[in-house]
From TrEMBL:
This is Polycystin-2-like protein 2. It comes from Catagonus wagneri (Chacoan peccary). The gene is PKD2L2. It is a multi-pass membrane protein. Keywords: Coiled coil, Glycoprotein, Ion channel, Ion transport, Membrane, Transmembrane, Transmembrane helix, Transport. It comes from the Eukaryota. Residues 77-272 form the Polycystin domain.
Length: 611
């Protein structure tokens, strides 16, 4: 019956609604503070894995092995290799000189530590470098009948099905015999193919002269042939000064078209995680991260049990689930990397005369860093869930939600035109312009055109007629028409939302207002700020005094009236209890005006009587 009467009277009473509202805001504020602690911990954890020296170590090694030219040929370095002759010049010149540092700059003996090279005097060469190649079989492609008299050999591009597994050449050492791939090793994604492990492998010597003789012997016996599709050069370094491993891979691809395409990978990673006191602090942050993850997972499970299917209707809940999944994946990757490092690091460092395959460890460590980077990205995005109660952020979210249907319709029309131009550019310019060499490159090139980065000269040179037509029409339709339509959709929707907010159609509460009120209350309790009642009283007395001045009363009368009011307030405060209801009401502007007017009339009557 009480519920029915309450419904009849208009629903839940206002005090209860206000209480629920305050509880909801207070709960949101507590969740925000807890999440900020989690986010700070995650930032410390992620930035603790990154060392500024990683960039400098990569830069030093890349300049040594990529930019150093062949003596007497300034333009021949690893980046500029275009033929097999250039490749052997690099191997016997800059690569050999950069790999073996066995003496000081004044030709004194550098170190006598198991004959280990110290690159730039600070970086220990771990084990010995490894060189391997992958080949394809003959007749993996078909020669047209009219050309079979001119060419009876055909080597297709590299695939695992086309790979040559037979021995060749001298068939004596490991570089001439095929080695089966290790199934646990990752594949390499190159420019023109995806390559697996294994192949024809040989390791270098600790001696510089022996390695040089090895290269000369391989070159003279044609170790690289027409069937060669890729050559990998792998080696690893360790710098004890900054506790970083640098895993280096130089790749020379031999496409079926001829020539050489070079690429490289420099991975500076911290495999020895816990060495200094700061590392142990990062370990404590990792434990705190796991505790937070357990708490958040428990909360989300409780919410799913409570709201069931309604839980999945909120996009913020989906973001929460995605964040939890990424956190668990990051923990799995971190555990796997630590276990592998614990198991393999000792074995890799035990024998310095063989190749130490740190590429496997670096590969998974890089993947772990990528997972952490994506996790912290979505962790920052989640903050919008809490600041959405702010007026500005609420306007932004309302604008995006309102115009979502229009944006989806616009996106369909935009990408139809965009992909049509991308395919046109790929078919017309793909064989001559690098930006349009593949369909994916054409898409990225068009995004760059929208941002003002384009190669019009290359397009025009590829096709003097279709090039300018393609460029002008693309700029007109995509840049001037479609992008301005997109901005118009956003602007119109934002104007509607702002108009609704101006007439009072806004959320019932704002988190920013709650924080501001809590801040003001704290200052009032610390007596660093006057209460609102005192400020309203002062403001009211100032308004009365200003109105009295406008009506002609002099300052003495106004000051005497204010003194009288303050004297009366002190008496009431001293002799009346706050628990007793007092009939006295504060003097209003009308009463003040009436009282002062009556006082002036009495004074005027007294003056006339005396006269």
């Amino acid at each position: 019956m009480a519920e029915a009467s309450r419904w009849h009277l208009g629903g839940t009473p206002k005090p209860k609604l206000q209480y629920r509202k305050d509880v909801e805001i207070r709960t949101t504020l507590q969740e925000l503070l807890l999440y900020l602690i989690f986010l700070i911990n995650l930032c410390i954890l992620t930035f603790g894995m990154v060392n500024p020296h990683m960039y400098y170590l990569n830069k030093v090694m890349s300049s040594l092995f990529l930019d150093t030219s062949v003596p007497g040929e300034e333009r021949t370095n690893f980046k500029s290799i275009r033929s097999i002759t250039d490749f052997w010049k690099f191997m016997e010149g800059p690569f050999l000189e950069g790999l073996y540092w066995d003496s000081w700059y004044n030709n004194e003996s550098l170190y006598d530590l198991k004959n280990t090279s110290r690159i730039y005097y600070e970086n220990i060469l771990l084990g010995v470098p490894r060189v391997r190649q992958l080949k394809v079989r003959n007749n993996t492609c078909k020669v047209y009948s009219s050309f079979q008299s001119l060419m009876n050999e055909c080597y297709d591009k590299y695939t695992s099905k086309n790979e040559d597994l037979s021995d060749f050449g001298l068939k004596s050492d490991s570089e001439w015999t095929y080695s089966a791939p290790n199934m646990s090793s990752p594949w390499h994604w190159g420019f023109v193919g995806i390559y697996r492990n294994g192949g024809y492998i040989f390791t270098l010597s600790k001696s510089k002269s022996e390695t040089l003789n090895k290269f000369i012997n391989l070159r003279l016996n044609s170790w690289i042939t027409r069937s060669t599709r890729v050559v990998f050069i792998d080696f690893s370094l360790y710098n004890a000064n900054v506790n970083l491993f640098c895993i280096i891979r130089l790749v020379a691809e031999f496409p079926a078209t001829g020539g050489i395409l070079t690429s490289w990978q420099f991975y500076s990673v911290k495999l020895l995680r816990y060495v200094s006191n700061y590392d142990y602090f990062i370990a404590s942050c990792e434990i705190t991260f796991c505790i937070f993850l357990i708490v958040f997972t428990t909360q989300e499970i409780q919410k799913i049990r409570e709201f069931k299917s309604a839980y999945f209707q909120s996009i913020w809940n989906w973001l929460e689930l995605l964040l939890l999944v990424l956190c668990f994946v990051a923990i799995v990757f971190n555990s796997y990397c630590n276990i592998q490092i614990f198991l393999l690091l000792g074995q890799l460092l035990k024998n310095t005369e063989i190749y130490s395959d740190f590429y496997f460890l670096a590969y998974w460590h890089i993947y772990y860093n990528n997972i952490i980077a994506i996790t912290i990205f979505f962790a920052w995005i989640k903050i919008f869930k809490f600041i959405n109660f702010n007026k500005t952020m609420s306007q932004l979210s309302s604008t995006l939600s309102r115009c979502m249907k229009d944006i989806v319709g616009f996106a369909i029309m935009f990408f139809i035109i965009f992909f049509a131009y991308a395919q046109l550019g790929f078919l017309v310019f793909g064989s001559q312009v690098d930006d349009f060499s593949t369909f994916q490159n054409s898409i990225f090139a068009q995004f760059r055109i929208v941002l003002g980065d384009f190669n019009f000269a290359g397009i025009q040179q590829a096709n003097h007629i279709l090039g300018p037509i393609y460029f002008i029409t693309f700029i007109f339709f995509v840049f001037f028409v479609l992008l301005n339509m997109f901005l118009a959709i956003i602007n119109d929707t934002y104007s509607e939302v702002k108009a609704d907010y101006s007439i009072g159609r806004r959320p019932d509460f704002e988190l920013g207002k709650m924080i501001k009120e809590s801040y003001n209350n704290a200052l009032e309790k610390l007596k660093l700020k006057k209460t609102q009642k005192d400020e309203s009283k002062e403001r009211k007395s100032e308004d009365l005094a200003e109105q009295a001045r406008r009506e002609g009363f002099d300052e003495n009368e106004i000051q005497s009236a204010e003194k009288m009011k303050k004297w009366k307030e002190r008496l009431e405060k001293k002799y009346y209890s706050t628990e007793i209801q007092d009939d006295y009401q504060p003097v209003t502007q009308q009463e003040f005006r009436d009282g002062t007017t009556r006082k002036c009339k009495m004074r005027f009557e007294c003056l006339t009587k005396t006269k």
